[in-house]
Amino acid sequence: KIRKPVAQIITYFFAEKGKPLAINDFLEKELVAEVCDKYELEYLFDDEKTTTAGDRGFLAEEHKGEAESRPPVVTVMGHVDHGKTTLLDTLRKRSVAASEAGGITQRIGAYTVELDGQKITFIDTPGHEAFTAMRARGAQVTDIAVLVVAADDGVMPQTREAIAHARAAEVPIIVAINKIDKDGADPQMTRQSLSEEGVLADDWGGDIPMVEVSAKQNINLDGLLEILNLTAEMSELKAVREDDAAGIVLESTFDTTKGCLATLLVQRGTLKKGDWAVAGCNVCRVRLMQNDAGGEVLEASPSTAVQVTGFQDAPTAGDQFEVYKTAQEARAVADKREREMSRGPVGFAGLGSDSEQTMKLALILKTDAQGSIAAVKHMFSEVKDSKYVNLRWVLAAPGPITDSDIELASTCPQGQKVMVLGFNTNVSPTAERTAKERGVMIQNFNVIYELFDTVVAALEGELTQEE
Ligand code: GDP
């Protein structure tokens, strides 16, 4: 809300206050006040009842009500063909069969299933691309990541990517070892290959729950849901219900008869028919709300997704929305944002080159082959110099540099400088474009020493800046 890069704020607390914060942390009132003081912003707390200028904004975390537990929001990730879509379909069909309404369903971008009275919401766009694109926009949608790994295939490149993305988002991972019905399925081998990625099963001394399932044959999906409920319980997910709603735009489409349809995931408060919501610069009077079963609802509570009509223009997926008391207030916020946007976007560009201190250098490396990764990493490990502890490998994987790597770079949480490096690989044209848009630099090398020297120079630059 204060339109400063989140990295700057994290860096401020870490470097000046020695207080490590992650991108999803809530700031206590005192810390909010401190941030405002730092940027010389005027602020008033909600409970002091003086919301001004239509920008009820960033102090809204100071709720009126008690936080109550809410269902987890889950994203399914994994390598192509490992069964993500099948898993989401089967879970959904089971839930439809179990519900009384039965039959009529519509795909709105997320759906909620129930096991023993416990609800779980699944984002039904599989894969980490959507997940990461949302995070790049500053929206944290997911509480838990389900990593689907086919038991006849084991860890594959996108499995590694998904692990890196889930870790960067600091969300708990649950592994679904899928296709156990297939000839050639080898769950033990799959566990083995996951352990090589540092994903160690809880019964192997690690802390990652793993369940063996068949998405296609509907085997042990209850087991998966149980573990999800357990993990959610441990994460103590909470939200205030009795408040104006706020959340994320998951999808938006245009329907020739109904106009703009947007799926909103409520993250706190309760969204009601007739509410005035703002997403980005778009105002919406919530006219009709439908749930994933296609039925009309009048209210949506935290962790539920509803498709709403009433937006004038389609909002962007990943935008946050919040509800305002009156049409005037909502319009004032949207207008103000529009004016600000025309002054140019604030984004990733300043990260790291800022005068503020940076802590580490984060690296995303793509190469032609697994062997090259080992060669590059080996080169750094050979140098016994303490400054190399400042390097962090966010992702090292074979393959071309794609959009998803750039998205990952632009979500890097801890105020770090990030480099996207290629070694003997290609850069997809869309990645190049996205990188430009987001101010992420891609550097591609064919000579390993050049890569090494470039990283060393960047690191030294960072460290000098710190002194
Ligand atoms: P995605 O690319 O990860 O979304 O994978 P899909 O869900 O499209 O699945 C890829 C293929 O694997 C499809 O032909 C599915 O029918 C098949 N498949 C998915 N889950 C299972 C399973 O549990 N057992 C078997 N035998 N096949 C599966």
TrEMBL record:
Respond yes or no to whether keyword Acyltransferase is given for this record: no
Top-level taxon of the source organism: Eukaryota
GO annotation, cellular component aspect: cytoplasm
Q: GO molecular function terms here?
A: GTP binding; GTPase activity; translation initiation factor activity
Q: Which UniProt keywords apply?
A: GTP-binding, Initiation factor, Nucleotide-binding, Protein biosynthesis
Q: Tr-type G domain: from which residue to which, for each copy? A: 69-238
Query: Aminoacyl-tRNA synthetase: present as a keyword of the record?
Result: no
- Similarity annotation: Belongs to the TRAFAC class translation factor GTPase superfamily. Classic translation factor GTPase family. IF-2 subfamily.
Stated role: One of the essential components for the initiation of protein synthesis. Protects formylmethionyl-tRNA from spontaneous hydrolysis and promotes its binding to the 30S ribosomal subunits. Also involved in the hydrolysis of GTP during the formation of the 70S ribosomal complex.
Protein name per UniProt: Eukaryotic translation initiation factor 5B
**Organism whose genome encodes this protein:** Symbiodinium natans
